[in-house]
Amino acid sequence: MPLSEIDPHLDPGSFELQDLPPTHASQRNLTSMSTEQDIARFHYTTEQNIRAWYSCGGDIDPSTLTFDRSWSHISPKLQDIYVERARYLGRLAEHGMPIDGSQCENFFIEVYTGYYQARGKGNGVGVQGEEAMSLTTFDALLGERIGRRVNIDDKPQLEDQDIEMNTQPPSTEELLPCLQHKATTNPMLSRLETAVAKGVQTLIHLHTFLTNSKTELKSSDVSDWLSEITKIKTYATPPKVVIGIVGSTGAGKSSLINAIIDEENLLGTNCMRASTAVATEIAYNYRSGKKYRAEVEFVERGEWERELRALVGDLRDDGENSVSFSGVRGEAMARNSEAAVAMEKIRAVYPVLSVQEIKELDVEELLSKGGVCDVVGQTVVLESDDPKAFARDLAVYIDSKSKRLKTVATNNTGKGKTPMRTIFDTQTTTTTTNYWPLVRVVRIYTKAPALATGATLVDLPGIFDSNAARAAVAEEYMKKCSAHWVVAPINRAVDDKVAQDLLGQNMRVQLHMDGAANDLTFICTKTDDVSVSEVQESLLKRDSVSPGLGEERLSRLEEEIGELEDWLVGIKSEILDVAERLEELEVCSEGGSQGSSPGKRKRDSFVSAQQPALDNTSETQSDSGSASGSVSKDDVRTLNDRRKELTNHQRTLSTERHAKETQKEAVEHELQALQTNLIHECIQARNAYSKRELKHDFARGIHSFHNTSQHPPTSAKDPSYYHALEQDLPVFCVSTRAYQKLQGRLRREAPVSGFNALEQTEISQLQAHCIAVTEQAREASALRFLFHLRRVLSSIGLWAAAEDGVMVSHGKKVEIEARFYIAEESFKREVERTCEGLMQGICDILTLNVIRNFGHALTLASEKCDETVKNWNDLNYNTYKAVCCRQGVFRFHNWNQELANLVIEPLMHDWKNAFEIEMPQEVDWFTQLMKAHLQAFHAQAISAAEIVLSDEIKDELKDIWKVQYKVMKRDVVYAVNRARRKQRGINREFAVGVEEYLHPAYLKCACENGSGMFHRMREHIRTQSTGIELFQHSTDRVKSELIKLLDKIEHDLISITTRLMEQTTRDYTTCIITPLVQQFASSSQSQARIKREVADVVRGAEMKLGLDGLLNDVTTARSTAATSHGYGPWEGGGHDGQRERRALETIKEEDENE
């Protein structure tokens, strides 16, 4: 946008400064500033000093300018404005501009000085009463000055790959391996990504060749193509697909993430506090170094200061009922009170202080204690190949129960990141500082196959965090989420109506406004925790496969085996008796005349019930022998026979016992299998029931949500719409424990019954779903890259193949040129007119659907406001005060959003209609007109130069305009998609506007004390929220953001169409005008040779890639799918039910045959 349109007082042509106002001596030079917050503070101080200087006409003592000290006292929203300006430095670095501190310092001073100097001159007075410079104005002014000084190109407007939250895209060297190993079940996508990998290598080779030949060619086209090649390579970066994971504490989110990334305990139980207090991002590690990497980002000093003030306030407001002092340590307080939570956080950072000391110390004094100053604003980087060591090191920073640490900052080794050396304290006493309350966000990078396709898992419990910095990070992630996974234990998922409870009214409204209602996935965890009897009674209604009969068989076998054991014991005893009797007989035989041995041992013989006669005979013989005192051979023979008989019988019983034991083992295995099958059947039955009920409950909840809306959508009357929602909702019932056990992990834990295969745990299916979520974005990204590649190869090929044209007279040459330039001018006029029509159409859509309805929405909201505010009076004093001290947001309470919903609900369906339906239709109309303009220009250009063009050149030009159209269409869709993503931030401005308007009331409440203060606090809130002005302020803020969005769309659209016109006319000029000129100025032999070599390179690349065949196959597949599903070029389909989101992201390619 021109500077004159941003501010009429600004004249970029005369933007030269004479006398710069002095800056305050306390300002630090930018060279010494390493953090974004420091640079933002410099921005604020510089602007305010210069603004004050010109407000007083230069008549002010510089020593009185003390804005540097007021930075920490301004509102977070105002600080965010300057933080955004600080991020402009990153944009400079992307263009290769060296970030010299003193140079940038001068830039900023000149920009602010020129702005207020110009406005002062324009008004003829100082700048008293003027608002601070807007971010749009700052961006334009700084870009203007930097553009003059270093000649950098404008930042490409279509290169946004959604690499957010300080993560960096992989380099080309890191990119190629990950492009060549993408998991997918879609064969077409696999072909596309293989072509992308080859295409990147082709561009690298082509770039090198053109760079080496640039001097000899001396062509401006070569420089343009080198820039285009560099830009197109960035399109190959894998798109980042953010998956937000939400769920209550104990739902098993950490275990779920561990299973998805195939790690046993990367996010272990020691990290539970981090999982509930810190937004944790898990993404693929594209770097070739260590397998595991993490970035632990700490909050800025100002953010911790604001948090600390609120925490200390909670302690001071707690009162005698919940806090009693019993000495320096050991204070008792209500377990879950605000004071208890505040004390836990403060003591983690300041463990040596008592409650009394914390209450009495000033916040500034607290900030100077401990090691806070050493870590705030820093980013700790961890790397390891050992998962256990990595998890242990990570827990140090985010778990309050882990080993304490000290940190020592080392030299700055990376952009914006200061690695910190970790020193573990050998004394794990409570007097050592613990830094988990200071952590803003944790980013973990691992080489998990499920994440290799671009999926990024984000644990998002921080949306209810009392820490404002972490809550802001979680909210920022929510804007970027392409999918939301809702996690709950299966035994609570249905009974607790998780589909409705976890998606409360605020979240339902937000999802609807974001157009993300169809991006939900429900995950029921802990499916291995099942009660067989309950499931049999409630779900199966029968004893499915009862193990009762098998248990009876097992009992009988155990009894029979016991009897056999008894018999064997008796037989062994009798064998011993027989052996002793034989020994006695032998002794008697040797001592014949001496008679019986006086020391004969006696044993009671075992009388078997089965051989009573044999045993009695033996006893009689023994007695007669003993009586006679003589030993007969018959007695010995009889005893030997008896012993053999007993031994044989023992062998028989042993065999029978072994057979029984074998039967017992078989029955036990059978029973175990029956039990496993029974548990498995119960698990599957409960899974099926849970999925069915969750789907039905979700559809019913959406239907109820629509019915309670004051302006329900047209789909509310269509039962098939809710049936489709119910059928398409993805639901997974998973067991992470069973999956980990089947993978050979968790060796110390007992086996998990009911699971025999990985598929039964549904973790494998969830991993596949994680990959599938990325396929749509990957396909769109791959096609965008390939169409741009096809276009640049065709353009370079045309230029390289251009030869001397047909000899014509000078008069004919002039006629051809004149007709061609007339066609070119007509083409440009039509394109510009069409762009204006599109912007007017989008503006009308937003006006009719949104802005015009503000008035009615304001009236309805003001009528319901009193009732909403009265409901807050039911909160206890401590919670009420905590909400006020935190600008209306504390834990699960969000007063700003509740009030904003009053004005959003009457608008939300028209809002969604504008962005999801009418805007795509308008863009579709625009692309069709652009196609007609390209076709008309082609026809006029060919007609003008008919006599000098061969059929081959005509065919190539026909291909060129078709490729240009497809590239333009995808770029337009990409730009509008990005605008739709930005509206997620805009619809949140309703709540931001409410917060701004209620800020004075929140401030008064925070300062209240003494008798009757609770009543006065309620009155402050009631008074400030009464009337329509609150909602007028909110809608005015949204209206301003919508206007900025329109400006952004217009900027992108102009950039796209300008590039289209330049590239199209360049290609046609190459084929039509250049050959005519070459009749009089032929190229040198070296230039002709290089052109032939370039042409060979291009032809070889086109043959290797086979782009025409591949892109035609994609077109055919898309057209077939569109026809079979019955949707048009801006609609979508598929089993996952994401039709609304696909409205812009899925494009049906038209048949290009004339």
Automatic annotation (TrEMBL):
Domain DUF7605: 862-1031
Polar residues composition-biased segments: 607-621
Segments for region (Disordered): 1-22, 587-666, 1122-1154
Matching InterPro entries: DUF7605, Dynamin_N, P-loop_NTPase
Biased composition, class Low complexity, residue ranges: 622-631
Feature: compositional bias, Basic and acidic residues: 1-10, 632-666, 1133-1147
Start and end residues of each Dynamin N-terminal domain: 243-502
PANTHER family: NUCLEAR GTPASE, GERMINAL CENTER-ASSOCIATED, TANDEM DUPLICATE 3 (PTHR36681)
UniProt protein name: G domain-containing protein
Originating species: Aspergillus cristatus
